[in-house]
Design a protein that fits this description.
- The complex is a heterodimer of chains A (429) and B (324).
- Helix content of chain A is 28%, strand content 24%.
- Chain A is built from nine helices and 20 strands.
- In chain A, a hairpin with a 4-residue loop joins strand 4 and strand 5.
- Chain B has twelve helices and 14 strands.
- In chain B, the strands form three sheets. Chain B has a seven-stranded mixed β-sheet, with helices on both faces.
- Classes of the chains: A alpha+beta (429), B alpha/beta (324).
Chain lengths: 429, 324
């Protein structure tokens, strides 16, 4: 019975700092066949939302962790019987089933230990009793922290198995009372009629923590620049069909701003830097973070264009399109959302004209790209006389960390971004 | 059985000892005419006279020194310090003379020193300490910390009988707050025997003094969550009932130690070390301590509340252990 003919599906490690994940949706139901690498479920972590592929061809025997549950990395969330072992699966299931009479929900609450029990910590008393009673700990469902087998789990198990060995007639075994698991989240909550309560997603919790921490860390200040986008407007109108036909890339204003920003960051390296203790870190590269809003306003994700300093307009436009499409399809890998050095956010698409964004820690600045609006402005004509003209104007807002970046530094950088856009150099960019 | 406060039980026990044995006398600041700072010896001067109820000068050295000398000469002094905090002045007599005399010269020192200790009433850094742990580190001294009126009386009788110097820490916060039935006649409570304040199965909580009541409140809270806590009141720290602790830990496999004294080198450290040495294979979770932070005791009531372990601190530590 100890032979393991099933394969465990575990909560994957989605990045170094990710310790737990939430099961969003099972894409297969119990008893359904699945193929290796076929999406099995969707998970959400505080860094990314993604699909988890099936580790093997086989049948999804049991879903151990239901939708909505948050579990530590490495926790068994499902069992798959591989196709070639499907014949022997009933025995395995019995060994994992709940004590007679217990509902499947109690059973699902316990986590079988990994093979050999090596994954979870074994306490001294559990080690001693297991040795004295010759119990294979990998067979004992654990209810302790991280699925650890507690002394009580082990004693319950010994009592259960002793009963089945001694007598073939089933002995009435009381279903173990569900162990109360007091958790931090068990704070009392009160409902007022008409209110609806739902738990925040992992991503929402992550954003909440990150935003609050940023305001607690950086000395935020924001500056706003008006940019005359006439030249960019003309160039985009001309290049747009060509980009779409030749390269399959939508040429957006955001791409122009991103390219102009990367160019200006060369001359204002602190804005691409970081405050680390009492040191200033600057870089010879730009990893450009682009904030992408997810559908139905269900959060946002900030993928990173690595080595943006080496990309021309086409390269940047292509990278933005690729990353934002994959972010919305939940197909980013953890490395693609880490290591950014400067962020651009783009609420202008919705008509916003001014914003004071929060810096994406540990960066020191974030550029906010606002709506392109045609405005009547005063210009000087060729004869030096004032005239009113209609121009496409875009506001760019920069929030910067005043601990490191002085106002003069920030506005000179912004003036350069503006100049790069107003005098767009097609050959160079 | 009459109901007595913790303070009345001490007073009653002391009066009985003085009636029983002529060698027993009391000495301390204001113990005579005034009846003691906390009124433990009210009426004693009238009953036993000025030779056996001695008002001492404002000098803990004089009190400890003269009591040590009297004990050496065969009397049974029960000396009182107004506040345990000032025992530092008496350190030399207690630690250098009283504790070592028997080992050096074979002469017993049957001295009892009563030490009103503990906080919880905004007494500040000089009137709130729980210095019992320091004296557990001095071979030759016995350390007693009663939590209930019955134990307060019975342990005092045992202390007076004992041929060694005994430091009797009475918790000021319990004086008039705790009331219970106390046997009328003379009885003794043995040293080195813990009392099961409450039996339980899921986690062992070892404590003493006023923290017994904090522990009980926390255990009440957890009972509603289906968690059963076994509370052991050590009653005496030197000697302490290691056997009872080991037996309870063998049952529950989880141990929380709670004390009002500061954390570092508090007596909880000794208990934790002994359990780790002798019951390692019975442990199902790390040993935990809840104790005061390593600072002097603040005056400010909110700060003092943050300093002295509260019911919520104990309950959350218990929950952590149970969930481990």
């Amino acid at each position: 019975m100890a032979t393991q003919t099933h394969i465990e599906v575990v909560m994957p490690q989605m990045g170094v700092s990710v310790s737990e994940g939430t099961i969003v949706k099972w894409l297969k139901s119990e008893g359904e066949a699945t193929k290796a690498d076929e999406p099995l479920l969707e998970i959400s972590t505080d860094k990314v939302d993604t699909e988890v592929p099936s580790p093997a061809d086989g049948i999804l025997d049991r879903i151990v962790k239901p939708e909505g549950e948050t579990v530590p990395v490495g926790t068994t969330i499902a069992l798959i019987t591989p196709t070639d072992a499907a014949a022997g699966r009933s025995g395995v299931l019995e060994s994992l089933a709940a004590p007679s009479g217990a509902g499947t929900h109690e059973a699902a609450a316990s986590v079988p230990n990994g093979p050999g029990g090596g994954r979870a910590f074994v306490s001294p008393v559990v080690a001693r009793i297991a040795a004295e009673q010759s119990v294979d700990l990998s067979l004992v469902p654990g209810s302790g922290r991280g699925g650890r087998v507690t002394k009580k789990d082990l004693l319950d198990y010994i009592e259960r198995t002793a009963g089945t060995d001694a007598e073939t007639t089933p002995r009435p075994v009381a279903a173990p009372a569900p162990v109360p698991q007091p958790q931090a989240s068990s704070a009392p909550h009160f409902e007022t009629p008409g209110e609806r309560h739902e738990r925040m997603s992992q991503m929402r919790l992550g954003i909440a923590e990150h935003m609050r921490r940023s305001l607690d860390t950086a000395a935020h200040a924001t500056t706003v620049f008006e940019v005359d986008m006439s030249r960019v407007f003309d160039i985009r109108t001309r290049l747009k069909p060509e980009y779409l036909e030749k390269h399959g890339v939508r040429l957006t204003y955001l791409s122009f701003v991103a390219r102009a920003t990367v160019e200006a960051l060369r001359n204002w390296p602190w804005l691409n830097g970081e405050v680390r203790g009492e040191e200033v870190v600057t870089r010879g590269f730009v990893n450009l973070s682009i904030a992408v809003a997810l559908d139905e306003s269900k959060g946002l994700i900030v993928p990173v264009i690595r080595g943006a300093e080496g990309l021309n307009l086409l390269g940047i436009a292509r990278a933005i399109q690729d990353l934002s499409e994959r972010a919305r399809a939940k197909r980013l890998i953890p490395d693609e959302v880490q290591g950014g050095t400067f962020t651009i956010t783009n609420p202008g698409g919705y008509g916003s004209i001014i914003g004071t964004p929060i810096i994406n820690q540990p960066q020191v600045a974030i550029l906010d790209v606002e709506a392109l609006v045609k405005r009547a402005i005063v210009i000087s004509d060729d004869n030096g006389a004032d005239a009113i003209a209609i121009r496409p104007i875009m506001n760019l807002c920069l929030s910067f960390d005043h601990r490191l970046i002085d106002g003069a530094y920030a506005v000179q950088f912004m003036a350069e971004v503006r100049a790069n856009l107003q005098n767009w150099n097609e050959e160079r960019y | 059985m009459p109901e007595m406060t913790y303070l009345q039980a001490i007073s009653d026990g002391l009066r009985q000892e003085m009636r029983r044995d002529e060698r027993v006398f009391v000495i301390g600041e204001d113990v005579g005419v005034y009846g003691g700072a906390f009124k433990v010896t009210v009426g004693f001067l009238e009953e036993f006279g000025p030779w056996r109820v001695i008002d001492a000068p404002l000098s803990e050295i004089a009190i400890a020194g003269s009591a040590t000398g009297a004990a050496l000469m065969g009397l049974r002094p029960v000396a009182e310090l107004q506040f345990a905090d000032f025992v530092s002045c008496a350190w030399d007599h207690l630690v250098t003379v009283a504790a070592k005399q028997y080992y050096r010269a074979g002469t017993p020192v049957p001295l009892v020193l009563r030490l009103p200790s503990g906080g919880g009433f905004s007494g500040g850094p000089f009137h709130s300490q729980s210095p019992e742990s320091s004296f557990t580190h001095v071979p030759g001294l016995k350390v007693v910390c009663p939590a209930t009126p019955r134990d307060a009386k019975g342990l005092l009788a045992t202390a007076v009988e004992d041929p060694n110097p005994v430091l009797y820490f009475e918790h000021k916060h319990l004086y008039r707050r705790i009331k219970a039935d106390v046997p009328e006649g003379r009885y003794t409570v043995p040293f080195g025997k813990a009392r099961v304040h409450r039996a339980g199965n899921d986690v062992t909580l070892v404590t003493w003094g006023a923290m017994v009541y904090t522990a009980a409140e926390a255990a009440d809270e957890l009972r509603g969550e289906g968690i059963s806590v076994e509370i052991l009141d050590l009653r005496t720290l030197q000697p302490w009932d290691k056997q009872a602790v080991l037996e309870s830990v063998a049952k529950t496999s989880k141990l929380l130690i709670l004390h009002e004294d500061t954390r570092t080198s508090g007596f909880g450290a000794e208990i934790a070390a002994q359990v780790a040495e002798e019951a390692f294979e019975n442990l199902d979770a790390p040993i935990k301590r809840v104790a005061a932070p390593d600072t002097p005791i603040p005056f400010s009531p909110p700060l003092e509340k943050a300093f002295i372990p509260q019911v919520a601190d104990v309950a959350s530590a218990l929950r952590e252990l149970v969930a481990y």
